[in-house]
Amino acid sequence: MGALIVCTDLWKIYRLGDVEVQALRGVSLEIERGEFVAVIGASGSGKSTLMNILGCLDTPTRGRYWLDGQDVGSMGSDALAEIRNREIGFIFQNFNLIPRTSASENVQLPLFYRGASLREQRTLAAAALARVGLAGREHHYPAQLSGGQQQRVAIARALVSFPAILLADEPTGNLDTESSRDIMVTLARLNREDGLTVMVVTHEADIAAYAAREIVVKDGQIVSDRRKAPVHARGG
Ligand SMILES: Nc1ncnc2c1ncn2[C@@H]1O[C@H](COP(=O)(O)OP(=O)(O)O)[C@@H](O)[C@H]1O
Ligand SMILES: [Mg+2]
């Protein structure tokens, strides 16, 4: 079995009238199952563009991409949506929870779309919430939870359908230092204990420090890619 993610020479070019923005300029990358990867770079360096392509939310202008052995680069939008729902769990900076909807119902949503029974939805959602330390908060609404807790609900929603990879774009961008640490410890624990493959996009070095591999992106290119010891995730 090859690497979970294999991409070669990815380019993304945006055209705005006469102006051409080269957001990605020849990115090649392999990610193995079970890795915990941070993609770090300044604002505008192409991190989100790369994450959106790897997450099948967007397609490259050119280059090839295989996800879990499937040639994603050649897929149409329906096939892409299907592989995205099956293989990818997303976590965003602003949590993207549905307001006035309980934590459990937020986490159940991906299972609802897959046609799971209500009983199965509730059981799996409760297990996922427990996994991120939110057992007993199933019936809380997002507004009744702290920012860090809301992001943990979003992590539970991302992992409830057993995706091949969790993709997190600036997951701590709206959180204070303590909650940020909490989220990174949670992701590190899920990677270590459940073997989840995790990729975190960030512009902050102390967030990237939790990962075991650091990929530096600059002006749409990978300028460094190294494995390293993650910071000790105390309490994880
Ligand atoms: N939809 C878009 N249309 C045009 N330009 C875009 C679009 N999305 C991103 N860009 C440009 O591509 C470059 C990379 O953006 P992005 O991937 O969002 O960087 P990052 O996430 O590292 O801040 C930036 O110059 C940005 O302005
Ligand atoms: Mg971004």
Can you put this structure into words, describing what you see?
The structure is a single chain. The protein is α/β, with parallel strands linked by helices and 236 residues long. The mean pLDDT is 95. 33% of the residues lie in helices and 28% in strands. The protein has a single domain, classed as P-loop containing nucleotide triphosphate hydrolases (Rossmann fold, 3-Layer(aba) Sandwich). The protein contains seven helices and ten strands. The strands form two sheets. Strands 6-7-8-3-9-10 form a six-stranded mixed sheet, with helices on both faces. A four-stranded antiparallel sheet has the order 2-1-4-5, covered by helices on one side. Helix 5 packs parallel to helix 6 (177-194). It starts with a strand and ends in a 9-residue tail after the last strand.
Topology of helices and strands:
Layout: E1 5-16, E2 19-31, E3 36-40, H1 47-54, E4 62-67, E5 70-71, H2 77-87, E6 88-92, H3 103-113, H4 118-131, H5 147-159, E7 165-169, H6 177-194, E8 197-202, H7 205-208, E9 213-218, E10 221-227
Parallel strand pairs: 3-8, 3-9, 6-7, 7-8
Antiparallel strand pairs: 1-2, 1-4, 4-5, 9-10
Bound molecules: adenosine-5'-diphosphate (ADP) and magnesium ion.
